[in-house]
Amino acid sequence: MGSAVITARAAATFDPVGRSVATARAFVRDTLQGWGYTDVVDDAVVLTSELVTNAVVHAGTAADVLCLRTEDGVRIEVSDHYPEREVPLQSAGPDFGSPDRENGRGLLLCAALATRWGVEYSPTRKHVWFQLDLPERPVGIRSAGPLLPVRLLPVADERVRVAVVQIDSAGSIAAWNEDAAFLFGHTADQVTGKQLTDFTAWPQTPGTNTGIVDALQLSRWEGSYGIRGADGRIIPVYASHLRVRDTHGEPSTVCLLVRDYERAVLQSPARTPVSDTNAESGKTDPFEIFIGSPAPDDLDGLLQRTVERARDMLDADAAFLLLATDDETELEVRATTGLPSARQRFARVPVEAGTGRYGSARMPAVHEDLENVPGAVPLLGGTGMRSVVTVPLKVEGRLTGSLGVAAESAGRYSNEEALRLQFAADRIALAVESARLGELERLRRGSLSFLVEASDLLAGTLDRDQTLALMAQMTVPTLATWCAVYTIADQSSEPYLSYVLHEDEERIDGLKALLSKIAPPDPVPTPGARVWTAPSEAAHQAALRSSMRTLGLGETGRLVEPGRLGSGIRTTLATAAAVGGETVVLPLVARNRVIGMLTLGKPSDDHFRQEILELAEDLSRRAALALDNARLYSERMAISQSLQRSLLPPGLPAVPNVEIEVIYRAAGEGNEVGGDFYDVFPIRDGAYGFAIGDVCGTGPEAAAVTGLARHALRLLAREGFGGPAVLERLNAAILDEGARSRFLTLLYGELWPQEDGSALLKVVCAGHPLPLRLRQDGSVEAAAEPQPLLGVIEELELYEQTVTLAPGDVLLCVTDGVTERREGTRMLGDDGLADVLATCTGLTAGAVAARILRAVERFAAEPASDDMAILAMRVPEPPTA
């Protein structure tokens, strides 16, 4: 950062996983907001997101993020640790990549957004840094007056007393200095905690709603009013109000007051432009004369100051200012005074002439009586205003807005007032347009950061319910006060109310009940937001019925018994207020099909800004694709699991005098069946078949051969074929699969329980791990000999071996997922399995299988990567007398 002094630093390292990108964004956002650098937060988050993505996703390494603060701005550095990197030649030009590519956008964005940036390469790392300077703020002298003779200086008492009064967020007096006590006669103890309105005599203008409470909410205010002294007399004062916040974020207002004739002490003088030559130094700035000095820094403050000064300049009852949209076809209400601003703010009206149109936007216009031309100024409908003058705001001949003042009496304004107002509008038009463009740029960058984080969250889940919750949580309260998501299962289904969210959790149940009672919006695929009036109308009707019941009136207006009054009136009225504003519906379209609707709402008399609707539309497109992906994933998972469950045996049969236990684990997330399989089934009276096998590989391909083998074994065994014949025919069936065939190891046997309590087994072990027999004395031995596996050669010569299990004996059959369990270079193996089995003397078949499974799991820290099946059979000992 050159010679700049570093005043703070913060660093963090993020692992090479996808979720680290969101964590890095949060780290940078929290750090910069903690430093108070909110002006550059959005740009820093966007650039950090791209650079960390390049490191952890594309380079596959950890990312180091370092934030450095100076007095002028912030520098952020992102480094990766690629093990071997080709260092670019110095003569090669910079390659920013393409904006359409997934990677390479980080450097392109650095070039577009950063004040300065750079890249440093080494064979083992890439180090990218960018610097964002804070916006320049005016410094130095704000205003100065000329050197005047003493006789021309303002007159004041020998000692000028400045009352300092601090008002908390509730309008109560929190501080009252000694000068205030001297000027007004009240001590600090007498006034602390009381409302300032108890002591003020505020000059009221007929037809306006502005008072001391409104003035205390403004960021800065200056003017005259009266303070009622301890003796009851009204003391005229000149006041300067400044709204501040403490370190905990709590707002308050500091009021400086002097006697009205000493107003020169506080009054902001008209600022004259500073010039090196004194030829023009005597001229004043018309903009500063109209707006006052200092001018508000933010657009809303500038517009509010403008309408207040316009109202005062023409002694009006109300004033309003509208800004034009980019295509100049509509005007958006941005500031009003003396009007119900909550109902009008951000509302839009068309520009061109016609019924309900704003016909006087492009030229100055004077309406002597609006009752004679109803609808000429739609904004003033129902407000009681009679006369109005409107003038355009233009920059380089282009319409940028409209400024108007109005009065409750007719014939108040003439062309002379229109010319005065137009002169003032011409002075402020350029400042307003500059502030508007700055606001749009901040909104654009904030929107980009919002969409980056939203896309990252939506891409991080394939769960339908979680996707619905994320959609709602991202819109409330950032974009809307409440949100409802409707989903459509298929083209023949009606929209279903799937999720409802309100910024006030206590309103969710009432909102859900209201929406459930009205017909859902039509699933129109046309892009963009459309207004939906049904919720507001239903809420107002419900509120009206509740109010009538409160008064003891039925729906027909007749008196009803008090006992029949409803108990949910308060909830109904609160719900009506919550959804009484504008409601819009955005279609959720994915793969050319409407899969749902995203409904956004505002509270009573509130409207959406066009920029918010455009951002919501962009979010709805991303959310629709994420929701459809979650639906497809859920459907395919359900189909996959259903098919897999069909490949598993329906259940273990009850074999007389033999305990049988099976444990089965399929490798891979979402898999219920893999390449290993087992089966135990009755063949004929007194005879049972059992099998345990392993198909080469895992996953769906291996599961397909598993199904073929299991069903073929049952059919062939029940046709009366012996063990060798069953396996030879199964071998031929596998080879018939051609390119889809896979070799198979299989242990197949037939079991006959005997009358003396033992069990007779005939087994064929075709390339499978040998079965182990545990005798009652603790000895372990192989119960069969190895023979060729299936699915490799056509001609097989297999034979079966006879095994007799005495009471207390156990036969253990496993797949190679058990014996080949590894940790590093160690493997459990046949010997390790035999050692574990030797400790199972006297255990039931279920206990034997469970002990083998625990031994396999504890052999290595990592989870098993291969399918695994354990089949244990035990002949119980006869009960002792």
TrEMBL record:
InterPro entries in the cross-refs: Bact_Sigma-Reg (IPR052016), GAF (IPR003018), GAF-like_dom_sf (IPR029016), HATPase_C_sf (IPR036890), HATPase_dom (IPR003594), PAS (IPR000014), PAS-like_dom_sf (IPR035965), PAS_fold (IPR013767)
Gene3D superfamilies linked: 3.30.450.40, Histidine kinase-like ATPase, C-terminal domain, PAS domain, PPM-type phosphatase domain
GO molecular function, one term: phosphatase activity
Domain PAS: 158-196
Stretches that traverse the bilayer: none
Domain of life: Bacteria
Gene Ontology biological process terms, A to Z: regulation of DNA-templated transcription
Keywords: Hydrolase
Protein name (Swiss-Prot/TrEMBL): PAS domain S-box-containing protein
Organism (species): Streptomyces atratus
